[in-house]
Amino acid sequence: MSDESHGAEFLAGLIIGSLIGAAAALLLAPQPGEDTRAELREKGIELRERMIEMSEEARRRAEDLQAEGRTAVQTQKTRVEEAIDEGKKAATLKKKELLDGLEQETGKAQA
C-alpha cells in the first residue's frame, strides 16, 4: 500500500510541476495575452485528460494487484489446508502403529 501512496504522490507532483512549468513558459513567451490564455486553456485540458488516463491506469493496476493478491492468498490457504490434512493423516497412522505395538507388547507379556 505504501508503494501506491508514493506513486500517487509522485503523480501529483508531476502534474503540479507540469502545470507550473507550462504556465511559466507561456507567461514568459512573447505573445499577446489572448493567445497565452488560449494556450493555457488548451494545456490545462490536455493535462486534465492525461491525469484522467493516468488515474484510470492506476486504478486498473490496483485492481489487478488486488486480484493477484487474492489468488496468492487462496493458493497459500489451500497449501496450508493440504499440509494440515497430511499432518493429521500422519498423526493418525503413527497413533495406530503405536497402539498396535502396545497391544503386541501387552499380548506377549500376558503369554
Description:
By secondary structure, the chain is mainly alpha-helical. The chain has one domain (2-84). It contains 2 helices and no strands. It has helices spanning 2-28, 33-110. The longest helix is centred in the middle third of the chain and has 78 residues, at 33-110. The radius of gyration is 34 Å and the shape is rod-shaped. The protein starts with a helix and ends with a helix. 0% of the residues are buried.
Compose a concise summary of this entry.
This protein is mostly helical and 111 residues long. It has helices spanning 2-28, 33-110.
Mean pLDDT: 85
Low-confidence stretches at least 5 residues in length (pLDDT < 50)?
none
Number of helical elements: 2
What pattern of helices and strands is seen along the backbone? Answer: HH
The biggest sheet, with number of strands, parallel, antiparallel or mixed sense and barrel status, is: none
- What kind of oligomer do you see? single chain
Strand content: under 5%
Number of strands: 0
Task: Report the radius of gyration as a whole number of Å.
Answer: 34 Å
Instruction: Determine the N-to-C terminus distance.
Output: 71 Å
SSE-based structural type: mainly alpha
Overall helicity? over 70%
User: What count of domains describes the coordinates?
Assistant: 1
Coarse shape: rod-shaped
